[in-house]
Amino acid sequence: MELKKGINFGGWYSQCDHSLERYDTFITEKDFAQVAQWGFDHIRLPFDYMLVQDNDGKFKEEGFLRLDRAVDWARQHGLDIILDLHKAAGYDFNDAGNAEKNNIFSSSELQEKFLSLWDKVSERYAGRPNVAFELLNEVVEADAAERWNSLISRAVAVIRKHSPEGKIIYGGIQWNSARTVKLLEVPADKNIIFTFHMYEPLIFTHQKAPWVPGMDPNKDIFYPRSLQYYKEESYVLGYKGKDVTDTDGAADGSTIIERMISEAAEAAKKAGAALYCGEYGVIDRAPVEDTAAWFRDIHKVFAKHDIGHAVWSYRQMDFGISDEHYSPVRDELIRLMTEPHSKA
């Protein structure tokens, strides 16, 4: 399992209405076949806890049967698959800063529910060589690093009871910022993968996004532009713009990408862990040729550091690579995403 060239199936078992119609129709086996035909080697599959676990902690066999089917379809088409817990009971990256909803770190009951889920998932899929486990999609709060490291340690121990050598993936705080990889503790074994998400400069990749506080819904942002341009535009994003506004120097937007990923690569190397980018992409509201330019730059950095990656996302979700918006550049984007790495 190398996890070099991946794509997210976002919106199927997560960030959705969790209806049977959604489960049955949004992604089907033909989409697994398409991904394999394009040349990807793995799928990152986000799933929310309510697919397989109710609020009382009881497990749902029908939800696990759906995960079984996804794992089987991946295997049949020569694909590895990451089971990414996108939303846990008591933690959702969409509820950033809401201590009443995001209370897993202050609730022993919710932590036990989280651990019981990974106990069940790892027991069920330990014998599947094409499955990797991602503990939690994105931890957001700046003060959560120590408590998150503690919960990571406990979750890894639970999974290792069933899967001594399976791949386990987790990232840092601040929406899996590349700059917080350095806050992760040295892993317990060699089959741990550190992950980060790369949407910087966020003011470009998420331009006009209605869910981002401070984002102008009508303003075009371009790429490439100067670092100063992105810093000035990013102040309105507050905490979400911090990675850019904290970047010093001149140069251009590619400098932000290079510096952040290089910092993450150095931290992972120091910790003795592999490094993986679990999400990256550009919203379908951005100028499409500028989108292609951003992809060219980030893939140069991935190649330089030999970093595996999974683009966000396959369909819809405002980033769907298979959607009409990306048609003028889709062939180039897929080539960039699936060509073998060659270090610079």
Would you kindly provide a written description of the structure presented here, covering whatever features stand out?
The chain has helices at 20-25, 29-38, 61-76, 108-125, 145-162, 173-176, 202-205, 227-234, 242-245, 253-271, 288-305, 330-338, and strands at residues 5-8, 42-48, 80-87, 131-134, 168-171, 192-198, 274-280, 308-311. With 344 residues, the chain is of the alpha/beta class. The chain has an 8-stranded parallel β-barrel, surrounded by 4 helices. Helix 4 runs parallel beside helix 5 (145-162). The longest helix is centred in the C-terminal third of the chain and has 19 residues, at 253-271. It is globular and about 50 Å long. The two termini are 24 Å apart.
Helices, strands, pairings?
Layout: E1 5-8, H1 20-25, H2 29-38, E2 42-48, H3 61-76, E3 80-87, H4 108-125, E4 131-134, H5 145-162, E5 168-171, H6 173-176, E6 192-198, H7 202-205, H8 227-234, H9 242-245, H10 253-271, E7 274-280, H11 288-305, E8 308-311, H12 330-338
Parallel strand pairs: 1-2, 1-8, 2-3, 3-4, 4-5, 5-6, 6-7, 7-8
Global mean pLDDT: 95
Radius of gyration: 19 Å
Strand % is: 5-15%
Unreliable segments of 5+ consecutive residues:
none
Q: Which strand order do you get reading across the main beta sheet?
A: 1-2-3-4-5-6-7-8
Helical fraction equals 25-40%
Total helices: the number is 12
In short:
The chain has 344 residues and is an alpha/beta fold. 39% of the residues lie in helices and 13% in strands. It is built from twelve helices and eight strands.
